[in-house]
């Protein structure tokens, strides 16, 4: 493919590609992102290719392998058009039936359709699924139409038209004005107004300006950026190009964590293809704008998602944050003005240009505009990537889209914003999701992780889990973060193991405050949030651990005791056989558990045929 | 002549050359902001956070370390506000529980009014202030010491734990280490610091934030000691 000399050439190529795409009589889309591949999409793909070969359908069927569509619970997903039908959890052995029934005879294979939990009615179209229909999928919804390894797919679906528009008819200052007017705020967690950041970076004096895409997503249970980067890498590149044009940068970097091999490979492919088409490099589309992007892979440190640590890592130094009294837009990568934005922030840019800032500002709440992608995980029926308008309530996300609790349990809390976020109880689920509302409730938007917990979760244990994560991931440079987190964890461990005292609770609060105000970077400044938010909403659980030496959810092992109800016990001896620690013995005509020997593994409870063993 | 900037620290107007840190500016003017990892002549890293101050901008107050904070024209800093004192005490308390046997840390604790620690004592022999690493790297250009590991596994180490040929055996690392000042000879108190420091503590309590000529100041080349001619200028 020769380089595209100008915007007109790009437009005519798009027209051509669109016609080619529509010429196919049958189109099959298979989602094969990281979640799809983990669920066996590669084997399904092989089976499909084989079947198509056997049936002689290869020149009639256009097979498109895409990234994640968002419904990770039901991967791999397959869409056949016509008749526009969505099959869930497809296995290789289902493929011959799909080919002979749906592709050849246009019949629907009923058993592979999505079955709603409430009724036996099965849903045929993707758009009709409650999981999808209640979302506003401007960003993640594009994944379904695009083969991430083929730039032509992206161009055919309107890709790079925002770039062409900007290069031909919009000045850099106007781009910044448009982004400012849209009200777009940083999606990485900070929520800083993007247009303002660009403006400051453009105005900052320096030899070179840099733009960076932060794809070092590391929050437990969060994978929005992975979904975008591996499903639609050109969207990110286009956003970066527009940003670079506005800021006056010639060089960009994508800092992506090495644990995302598919995203790394797709962004590399995308950059190579964009160079080949003349969309990266010198004089892009015949304009005076030149820009190139390089990929840097992160080495697995969570703290490198912090902007200054990321830049240190990019420079080849140890990934440790530095004080941000001088902002990175003034002095960042190589001490030059550097504009760093999150993957999702960059992804929002092209459509702000195409649809106009008013369209974007028309969505969302007063101060948080547009849509936001959340990674909905934990104890809900439908897990996956959920994109909703800002201001959607937690209730709608967790119950309407997420489908509510699993196995008839009660949902107790949701953890938003990753390890630095907080736990919000059910009573706060009417909260609209936007930057201010979440912060005010003691949590934060963060990058968009949403871990739902039901009543089997102990909040002291949850706080402990997140602190443990942060203790491992703190760089260890400053005292409040390194020692403070360690001491908070020490106190929580005391609580969980029955050594807690009421004085320690006060100490914990004092220490949490110190870590928040005293730490060097955002990791430390937010590290106490899991503790502070659980203390705020679930103080009774802490008090039960401390005063009554009791874990209400039965999670903290040291506080759990197994007991045999003599009235229900049939003296079968199954538990005595099963106990790996010889803690159960027969004493006269009663079977008893010796607490000092018991390791609280719960095997006896599972083995008991008469349900005589209970946990208290 | 360097450009001068004017800042306010605890109400005192101070003029310093552009590029000076707030901590240096304050120390120069005799406002003693306690500090640990700061060292004249090497790059500040803001690791110990003992020197935190509040920067006041209208109604907004932001807490940050003063050693890494560059003085900018018109900056208003509070080094001894209620919040700063509380945070500083808590941070020093964390340090004290890590290394209760260090004379430098004992003095630091006495200076900020910490006599007890609410945490179990750990008795470590390094608090990772990084003074040795930086003096080796920046002053002696030897780069024989560095940080290894992350988070709670972070430690100061020689390359591959062997003394490299680049090491000049200058012992600068030992000289600047806060753990090598001869420890206090007094007996350890349960959960607190030794009795000998208490005289100083009393002084702190009596005269508020006045400099008590702490041993730490001498070891760490405090401006007061320099002014008195008891210490060669850094």
Description:
The complex is a heterodimer of chains A (616) and B (234). With 616 residues, chain A is α/β, with parallel strands linked by helices. Chain A has five domains: 20-129, Glutaredoxin (3-Layer(aba) Sandwich), CATH 3.40.30.10; 145-361, Rossmann fold (3-Layer(aba) Sandwich); 371-454, Ubiquitin-like (UB roll) (Roll); 459-547, NADH-ubiquinone oxidoreductase 51kDa subunit, iron-sulphur binding domain (de novo design (two linked rop proteins)); 561-615, Alpha-Beta Plaits (2-Layer Sandwich). Chain A has 25 helices and 19 strands. Chain A has a five-stranded mixed sheet. A four-stranded mixed sheet of chain A has the order 2-1-3-4, covered by helices on one side. Chain A has a four-stranded parallel sheet with strand order 9-8-7-10, sandwiched between helices. In chain A, helix 7 (161-169) runs parallel beside helix 11 (233-247), helix 8 runs antiparallel to helix 9 (194-203) and helix 19 runs antiparallel to helix 20 (502-518). Chain B is an alpha+beta fold. Chain B is built from eight helices and seven strands, in the order E-E-H-E-E-E-H-H-H-E-E-H-H-H-H. In chain B, a hairpin with a 6-residue loop joins strand 6 and strand 7 (155-157).
């Amino acid at each position: 493919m020769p380089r595209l000399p100008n915007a007109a050439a790009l437009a005519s190529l798009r027209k051509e590609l669109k016609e080619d795409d529509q010429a196919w009589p049958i189109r099959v889309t298979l989602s094969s992102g990281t979640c799809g591949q983990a669920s066996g999409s590669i084997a399904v793909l092989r089976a499909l290719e084989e079947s198509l070969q056997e049936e002689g359908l290869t020149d009639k069927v256009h097979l498109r392998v895409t990234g994640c569509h968002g419904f990770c619970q039901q991967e791999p997903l397959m869409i056949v058009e016509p008749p526009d039908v969505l099959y869930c959890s497809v296995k290789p052995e289902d493929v011959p039936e799909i080919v002979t029934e749906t592709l050849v005879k246009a019949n629907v294979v009923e058993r592979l359709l999505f079955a709603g939990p409430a009724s036996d009615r099965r849903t045929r179209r993707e758009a009709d699924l409650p999981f999808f229909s209640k979302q506003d999928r401007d960003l993640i919804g594009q994944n379904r139409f695009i083969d991430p390894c083929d730039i032509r797919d992206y161009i055919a679906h309107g890709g790079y038209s925002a770039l062409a528009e900007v290069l031909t008819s919009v000045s850099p200052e106007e781009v910044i004005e448009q982004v400012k007017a849209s009200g777009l705020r940083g999606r990485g967690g900070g929520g800083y107004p993007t247009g303002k950041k660009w403006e400051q970076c453009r105005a900052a004096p320096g030899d070179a300006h840099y733009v960076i895409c932060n794809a070092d997503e590391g929050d437990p249970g969060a994978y929005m950026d992975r979904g975008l980067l591996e499903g639609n890498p050109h969207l990110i590149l286009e956003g970066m190009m527009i940003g670079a044009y506005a800021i006056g940068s010639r060089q960009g970097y994508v800092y992506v964590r090495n644990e995302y091999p598919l995203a790394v490979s797709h962004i590399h492919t995308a950059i190579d293809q964009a160079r080949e088409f003349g969309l990266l490099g010198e004089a892009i589309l015949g304009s005076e704008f030149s820009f190139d992007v390089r990929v840097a892979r992160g080495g697995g440190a969570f703290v490198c998602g912090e902007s200054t640590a990321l830049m240190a890592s990019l420079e080849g130094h140890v990934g440790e944050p530095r004080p941000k009294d001088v902002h990175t837009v003034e002095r960042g990568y190589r001490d030059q003005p550097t504009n760093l934005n999150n993957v999702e922030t960059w992804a929002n840019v092209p459509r702000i240009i195409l649809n106009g800032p008013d369209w974007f500002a028309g969505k969302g709440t007063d101060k948080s505009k547009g849509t936001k992608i959340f990674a909905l995980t934990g104890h809900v029926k439908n897990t996956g990537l959920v994109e909703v308008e800002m201001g959607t309530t937690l209730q709608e996300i967790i119950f309407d889209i997420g489908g509510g609790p699993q196995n008839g349990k009660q949902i107790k809390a949701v953890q938003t914003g990753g390890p630095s976020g907080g736990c919000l109880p059910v009573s706060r689920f009417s909260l609209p999701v936007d930057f201010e509302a979440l912060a005010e409730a003691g949590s934060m938007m963060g990058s968009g992780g949403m871990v739902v917990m039901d009543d089997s979760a102990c909040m002291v244990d949850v706080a402990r889990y997140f602190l443990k994560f942060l203790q491992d991931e703190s760089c260890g440079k400053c005292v409040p973060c390194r020692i403070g987190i360690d001491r908070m964890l020490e106190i929580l461990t005391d609580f969980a193991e029955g050594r807690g005292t009421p004085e320690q609770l006060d100490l914990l609060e004092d220490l949490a405050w110190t870590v928040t105000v005293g730490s060097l970077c955002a990791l430390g400044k937010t590290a106490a949030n899991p503790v502070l938010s659980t203390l705020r909403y679930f103080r009774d659980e802490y008090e039960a651990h401390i005063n009554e030496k009791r874990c209400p959810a039965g999670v903290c092992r040291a506080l759990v005791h197994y007991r045999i109800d003599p009235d229900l016990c049939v003296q079968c001896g199954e538990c005595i056989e099963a106990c790996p620690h010889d803690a159960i013995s027969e004493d006269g005509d009663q079977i008893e558990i010796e607490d000092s020997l018991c390791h609280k593994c719960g095997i006896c409870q599972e083995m008991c045929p008469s349900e005589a063993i209970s946990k208290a | 002549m360097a450009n001068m900037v004017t800042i306010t620290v605890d109400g005192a107007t101070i003029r310093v050359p552009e590029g000076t840190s707030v901590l240096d500016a304050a120390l120069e003017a005799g406002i003693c902001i306690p500090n640990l990892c700061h060292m004249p002549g090497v790059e500040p890293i803001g690791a110990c956070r003992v020197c935190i101050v509040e920067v006041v901008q209208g109604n907004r107050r932001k807490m940050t370390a003063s050693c890494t904070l560059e003085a900018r024209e018109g900056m208003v800093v509070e080094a001894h506000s209620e919040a700063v004192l509380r945070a500083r005490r808590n941070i020093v308390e964390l340090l004290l529980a890590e290394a209760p046997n260090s004379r430098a840390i004992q003095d630091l604790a006495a200076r900020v009014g910490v006599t007890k620690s609410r945490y179990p004592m750990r008795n470590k022999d390094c608090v990772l202030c990084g003074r040795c690493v930086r003096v080796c790297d920046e002053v002696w250009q030897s780069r024989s010491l560095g940080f290894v590991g992350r988070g709670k596994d972070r430690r100061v180490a020689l390359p591959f734990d062997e003394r490299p040929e680049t090491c000049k055996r200058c012992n600068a690392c030992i000289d600047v280490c806060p753990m090598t000042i001869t420890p206090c000879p007094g007996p350890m108190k349960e959960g607190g610091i030794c009795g000998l420091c208490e005289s100083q503590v009393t002084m702190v309590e009596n005269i508020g934030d006045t400099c008590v000529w702490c041993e730490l100041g001498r070891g760490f080349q405090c401006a007061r000691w320099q002014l008195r001619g008891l210490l060669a200028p850094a």
